[in-house]
Write a structure and sequence with these properties.
Helix content: 40-55%
CATH superfamily of the largest domain: Cytochrome c-like domain
CATH topology of the largest domain: Cytochrome Bc1 Complex, Chain D, domain 2
Bound molecules: heme C
Largest sheet: 2 strands, antiparallel
Length: about 250
């Protein structure tokens, strides 16, 4: 009975201050001025907070290590409710930097492509698959990102990425380039071989493995299926008039 009531009751609204104390303060400090494990959050703007939270980059597991976009389903990310609560809580601290941008799906993808080529391609590659920038830094693939993530990234300029403010990208530019990027073909639909060339040894090993698996497969099923098949064929042959006379 108590269980039923618990399920029926609305989920409690996440408490931003508590979330901050539990998941962020160890690195960003209770006063948000930073520690050796994390930078100050003062005046950085909500776009930056939103970017780091909705892409699952924060809360970080290892400080100062660039991580990729972590999908919500891996469970490493805060829920949307928790993110909004943290943003409300942090809004006064981060005020002064770029706000979370409003973005409309752009209308002119061709214009978006040209803006992308001029401003983004040298880091993220023409195909959007990204590339290395330094030894431990890279421009990530853009083939799975949502339009909100693109808009946040443009206005916030995370890590090594430059910030594009209203002077560089007016609202129209933001709409078009964000729509273009959000519409890049998905990686999973890409027409490439299942594994990348990493030199002859791993490929050879994979080849051997494939052969072993194939042999094991054939063995298992041959032995189970053949007798039945043979019996059927024998019956058919018998009916056909005993062609297989020795
Ligand atoms: C293990 C330490 C650690 C924890 C925990 C952590 N952060 Fe961070 N955070 C960092 C570091 C280090 C950076 C520097 C940038 C990077 O690594 O990408 C950072 C960067 C950020 C930035 C961007 C700051 C800037 O100016 O670029 C924001 C916003 C942020 N963190 C918010 C949060 C929030 C909110 C939480 C809690 C949900 C959190 N972080 C938890 C270590 C941490
Ligand atoms: C100087 C190189 C550079 C340029 C130019 C650049 N980016 Fe980035 N971009 C980066 C890096 C580096 C990151 C990762 C930052 C991090 O995680 O700390 C990034 C991250 C992103 C992300 C987040 C991807 C994810 O998986 O979460 C998006 C979206 C993005 N960039 C879009 C753009 C767009 C659109 C442009 C052009 C308007 C652009 N970038 C220009 C280097 C660049």
């Amino acid at each position: 009975m108590t269980l039923l009531i618990a399920i029926a009751a609305p989920a409690p609204t996440p408490d931003g201050a508590r979330l901050y104390a539990n998941s962020c303060a160890s690195c960003h400090a209770p006063e948000k001025l930073g520690t050796k494990d994390g930078p100050s959050l003062r005046g950085i703007g909500l776009a930056r907070v939103d970017f780091y939270l909705i892409t699952g980059r924060m809360p970080a597991a290892v400080p100062w290590l660039q991580v990729g976009h972590r999908e919500r389903r891996t469970g490493q990310q805060l829920s949307l409710g928790e993110i909004r609560a943290l943003e409300n809580y942090l809004a006064p601290t981060v005020a002064g930097g770029p706000d979370i941008p409003v973005v409309f799906a752009g209308h002119d993808l061709e214009r978006g492509r040209r803006l992308y080529a001029a401003n983004c391609e040298h880091c993220h590659a023409a195909t959007g698959e990204g590339g290395a920038l330094g030894q431990l830094t890279w421009a990530p693939s853009l083939r799975h990102v949502t339009i909100d993530v693109v808009a946040d990234a443009i206005r916030a300029g995370p890590g090594e990425m430059p910030r594009f403010g209203e002077q560089q990208f007016a609202q129209d530019d933001l709409n078009d380039v964000a729509a273009y990027v959000a519409n890049l073909p998905d990686e999973s639909r890409r027409d490439v071989p299942p594994f990348r060339s990493t030199g002859p040894v791993p490929e050879g090993a994979a080849g051997y493995l494939a052969v072993i698996v194939l042999v094991a497969f054939v063995f298992t099923f041959w032995r189970v299926d053949t007798p039945a098949l043979e019996r059927e064929e024998a019956v058919r042959r018998d009916e056909g008039g005993g062609v297989e006379g020795m």
